[in-house]
Amino acid sequence: MFAYLSLGSNIDAEPHLRQAAAALRAQFADVVFSSVLRTPAEGFAGPDFLNAAAIVRTTMSPWQLDDWLHALEAAQGRVRGGPRFASRTLDIDIVLFDDRVIVATGTSHLQLPRPELRHAFVLQPLAQIAPGVVVPGDGRTLAQMWMEHPQHATPLPAAALQLD
User: Fold this and answer.
1) Is 161 among the domain residues?
2) Which of 52, 71, 64, 58 has its CA nearest to residue 9?
3) Is the pLDDT of residue 83 over 70?
């Protein structure tokens, strides 16, 4: 099974993203990373984010992977429970998990495909590394979605950081 992840940080972003990439490689071996993009904070005033995407092959369930990613975030100082839109050391979300559609419930926040796929900072890097992947419930590929995105004409700028 393949999981398509979104990574972001705006507090000491470079070291946190490097550490996250190393942890992903250690756990999943074969990891594909997009380029890293610089994006303004969205929904609040704060420092720019560095954002990227990754593809991992896993035998974990989506819920197990989500728990593992939350533990990785916590190990890098991520504190949950504050405002939804705020600065963070590390944010890693499962955006797609094969062709699974999961609806959030009262007992689980996990939702797939992740609604944030509508944001350029999530969609642009995913389309870069997985252009032919069809988004379940939508029917379009990531490349088609990016081509139709309002920000496609002015893509987000690349940062100097490389994760692979």
Assistant:
1) no
2) 52
3) no
